[in-house]
Amino acid sequence: TRLPADHFHRIQGTPPTESMKSPLKYDGSAAQPAFPALTKGTTNTATTTASGWAAELCRNVTGDFYSELGPVSALAELMKLAPTFEFAGANSVAVPRRDTSKNVAGAWVAEGASIPVNQGRFTNSVVNRFKLAAILLATNELDQVSVISLRDQFEKMLLDDSSVLLDQAFFSDDAGVDALSPAGILEQATTAAGEATGTISDVSLDVRKALDHFADIRAKTPVIVMSIAMLNALMLKSDATGAFPFAPWVADMKIGNIPLIGTNHLSSADQMISMDADCLRIARDLPSLDSSETA
Fold first, then answer.
1. Which tens digits make up the pLDDT trace of 191-220?
2. Distance between CA atoms of 14 and 97, rounded to whole angstroms?
3. Strand partners, 128
4. Residues 159, 161, 166, 171: is their CA dihedral positive or negative?
5. Number of CB atoms found within 10 A of residue 155's CB
6. Average pLDDT over every residue of 237-241
7. DSSP 90
8. What's the pTM?
9. How far apart are the C-alpha atoms of 177 and 116, rounded to whole Å?
């Protein structure tokens, strides 16, 4: 009773002692309570996703997250070479690309002669958004007594383990599942068997096949992805004279001017992937790391 009495004193000027007496003035016939009902008006809670109401106050960082993945993720290394786009809240990104079935090359013409008119064609590639999420749990007591920052440690754990999952999904031949997971880059890739013996000449022949492939597709940003085990084998491969002909490739992580990317997350340790990074279209979204005491 004291609380509403003080309330009426502030808004109506009624002395608290008078308000305290009013509940006792009941004749048995009144249907309404002595105090009028007090209700709280509806409020729009400020959220990080509501545009115009707190979303603009949030600090969003995309690049740092993916750059920190770089040392442990081959996908993050590819993102440095391939065209990347931001979803920026959209559910998908349509990226225009040329329809290569239409040849718009010119023709030799004499002076004063007609110049041929060619028609090109454009289509688009649609990059859909998928969600990768995890929840880590800790008690308040652990947070209070921990000698390290649990938030920083949890972020590092998510970076380490998410990099594995991202690489495995990206370099797989899995078909995509609508509204769940993306397709792997090798789903429709052309495969070729390598030479079987692993000799110096066979290794050179396999690498030459990859280089010839780049020439065939007129690659603008060629890149080769290998397993860490294969890179180690190349580094230690010696010839009859005791020299290590492939060690400079591994030391520079380049074959000529073509970047090498190593990963432990290919489906086979003997697998080598050659691709044109300029043909990749990678879209990314703002990562979110939230903490809450509410389950």
1. 888 876 778 888 889 889 889 989 988 899
2. 75
3. 92
4. positive
5. 16
6. 90
7. -
8. 0.65
9. 46
